[in-house]
């Protein structure tokens, strides 16, 4: 009996919130700018979604969500296109991506999955279509979500966990810093306005990257940035998914996105310090 009363109380409170939000939208009337600002606020948008009051349809929400992660995908040499949304299924086409690093595909999975599901929680599944042609050596688009499925995404288990790390915002352009996130030591750097994060591990010498610094290569344009391992002096492209520029090897990138208004880093399941 007590449980039933509690459930009824929660339901009544939720209905009250829904009625209040509906009244707010009605009072705003034709003020499209104000309604759009509400829709762009993560917290308000989530409440509007819960009560079926969001002003944008699912197709628009998914397209906008993909636009927010497209710059991040571009840093990995990849891109995403929305083919359609039908019967709760989002169909995407992922192209490009890192040519040598399987861990880079996991960062794309996490970024795309998270953005789409946050914008459209009502979707049932995400399908990835194969582009017409793939260059040799490039991770195929239909394999980008294979790690998610292997890690149990289809059974409801996440492929990775997101952790708020607002301290990343304190990094200045050209600065490199170390952060402990869920027991994992992460190296983060800022190049211009963009933040990049990598696991603190040099694949060349198998040692920590603590003390690494950003450098601009001679003859390269402004915006070029490589991380130099302080131990073996191997150089890695900080902007393009951590690919080594003077030999074989690859840093392990981690997604950095703004989630619910906070800078956050995703740590894939099974990755630990």
From TrEMBL:
This is Rieske domain-containing protein. The lineage of its organism: Bacteria, Bacillati, Actinomycetota, Actinomycetes, Mycobacteriales. SUPFAM superfamilies: Fe-S cluster assembly (FSCA) domain-like, ISP domain. May be involved in the formation or repair of [Fe-S] clusters present in iron-sulfur proteins. Residues 163-265 form the Rieske domain. It comes from the Bacteria. GO terms for biological process: iron-sulfur cluster assembly. GO terms for molecular function: 2 iron, 2 sulfur cluster binding; iron ion binding; monooxygenase activity; oxidoreductase activity, acting on paired donors, with incorporation or reduction of molecular oxygen.
